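*** Query protein ***
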Amino acid sequence: MARPVIALLTDFGTRDHYTGSMKAVALSICPEVILVDISHEIDPHDIFDGAIQLASAYHYFPASTIFLVVIDPGVGSKRSGLAATVGGYRFVAPDNGVLSGVFAKKEPSEVVEITERRYARPTVSKTFEGRDKFAPAAAWLAKGIKISALGRPTSNFLKLDLPSTIVSSDGIKGQVMRVDRYGNAVTNINRTDFERLSGQGDIQLTVGSHQVKRVVGTYAEIGQGEVCALFGSTDHLELAANSSSAAEFLEVKRGSEISVLRTK
């Protein structure tokens, strides 16, 4: 029988004990679990980016993986904790919208509010529910309990208003969703919509006050001092430069608008 997997996504970074403490709690409950780090470098309190990164990564994991997601600026408040089932995956997170990207891809088949105290540590810190509430819940799921054991069903949970593209017969309007550590500006324009438009004639790609003149297949095709567009690993249009930051060159950030227009 395959060992259970818990994948972690947090804004804790790696200099403090927080991530290690959560892993220790999970291992004390389910010693056979495999712990995988998605990232701990989400900017502090950046729920939006956490939602985007989780949605980009989760479906590459083995079926039945449990995702422990702790980006929690509301820790200690009245906000709830959630456990959810989406497809063959389960998720444990605060109810603050961090699961919105996953829920946008596929509606959850089951969502419960985490209320059952026996699946938490005996004392729950008001400043570290990730260690005392969410990590134990994820570990007990890995140990084999049903998600319904964690609490009562709920349909009243927070969803972020994630930006969508506006697609018309002669253009697409989108925006930058995130800038990665290389300075690539990743947009919400998907390959299918782009290729449908570009297959009908010439296009003009504009971001801010800049026009991006070429769409390439790989980063290696980008010339020195040039910014190009290409489709990255999530099959969304991104803007990239040769060994430098396209976001800085174009003066764009998350939320910056991008348009693709058919010119003839």
